[in-house]
Design brief:
alpha/beta; 15 helices; 53% helix
């Protein structure tokens, strides 16, 4: 264990007291320590000053004009900006109930007046050191957690890369549809954290295709009924591969793998879910995946034009797709097309009008539209 002393020079201490004499004594006591000190003469002033000053420790009197020290402490602990600063109560009240109340509202220590300078300084140093060590530990935990999350993400990305070797879809497809999903999630009102999860989880929607025989997965023509039933199992296979994850990323990826082939009207698979029974991330990924599949070239078809793909999305609103998401997708189409252009296939145009044939939604089986 590291036993090196914690450097407390320059740490910030906020003194909250309505009595000038008490403030002078405390300032004199703390002066040799080279702390940065701020003064508040009452609770209201402390609540305004603390979020700006960002104290490392607060010395707080209890009996003051306006709100007392207990309420001041309670409000400081409710504020995310100031809640970590340790609060030491300094009061003439030595009643046990007063001391217990101080700890109850979030104080870490209680010193009674008149106090000895040596005692006050020792307690202040002790709590500043504990606070600094706790902050260091929290930072290390955050760093380790970030490293763990990055490792998990890298493993999942390699799984996606593995599935690409079995399918005729390209890495650019994954990049486009995951970003379409993120844009749609943001337009729907998902926060930044959820959008980040969607960006990294949506590429795993077809992970289950690693379990589909090549004779079916790579068949250049239309699948027959038996083959299509086998193809449909890629959803449950993907779910099984991703099942049991403890991270939000794995859990969302599992949900997407299982539900991205469900349809708003209940005609999808594997469970025939309807409407909002289908998790939002599954509904979002389905729309993003279909749009990219339609507007991308495959060995057995030319790309649909954006106009034709949008027309189909409008036609399938309320059938295949969540109608609200379909409308949002069309609303953000300029942003979608920017992504499409940025991640276009090398040497390919982004909007092709020529067609070898014009498949229906069900006929583009290899593009996850069955």
């Amino acid at each position: 264990m590291n036993n090196q002393p914690v450097d407390l020079e320059g740490m910030k201490v906020l003194i909250v007291d309505d009595t000038t004499a008490n403030i002078d004594v405390l300032r004199k006591t703390l002066a040799p320590q080279q702390f940065e000190i701020a003064i508040a003469l009452n609770g209201e002033a402390a609540l305004k000053l603390a979020p700006k000053f960002l104290p490392d420790l607060i010395l707080l009197d209890i009996r003051m004009p306006g709100i007392d020290g207990y309420e001041t402490c309670r409000q400081l602990k409710e504020n995310a900006i100031t809640q970590k600063a340790p609060v030491i109560f300094i009061s003439a009240n030595s009643d046990t109930q007063d001391i217990v109340e101080g700890f109850h509202v979030g104080g870490v220590d209680y010193i009674t007046k008149p106090f000895r300078a040596e005692e006050v300084l020792a307690r202040i140093r002790s709590h500043l050191e504990l606070s600094a060590l706790r902050n260091t530990l929290e930072e290390k935990v955050l760093q380790r957690t970030d490293l763990l999350n990055k490792s998990r993400l890298e493993i999942l990305q390699r799984l996606v890369k593995t599935s690409e070797f079995k399918d005729n879809e390209t890495g650019m497809h994954i990049r486009r549809m995951s970003r379409y999903s993120t844009l749609l999630g943001k337009a729907h009102g998902l926060n930044e954290e959820k959008c980040e999860l969607l960006l990294n989880a949506s590429p795993m929607h077809d992970l289950g295709k690693v379990g589909i025989p090549d004779r079916i997965l790579l068949k250049p023509g239309k699948l027959d009924h038996e083959e299509m039933e086998i193809m449909k199992t890629h959803t449950t296979i993907g779910g099984e591969i991703l099942a049991g994850g403890t991270s939000e990323l794995l859990q969302m990826a599992e949900t997407i793998a299982l539900t991205h082939q469900e349809k708003w009207d209940g005609s999808g698979y594997p469970k025939g879910l309807t409407g909002e029974e289908i998790p939002l991330e599954g509904r979002i990924t389905a729309l993003a995946d279909v749009f990219d599949a339609l507007t991308s070239e495959r060995p057995y078809k030319k790309a649909w034009s954006v106009e034709k793909a949008v027309n189909l999305i409008e036609e399938e609103s309320g059938k295949h797709f969540d109608p609200e998401l379909a409308a949002l997708f069309i609303k953000i189409l300029p942003e979608i097309l920017q992504v499409k252009e940025r991640f276009k296939e090398p040497g390919k145009e982004t909007d092709t009008e020529d067609f070898v044939f014009t498949p229906t939604l069900k006929e583009v089986a290899h593009d996850n539209l069955g």
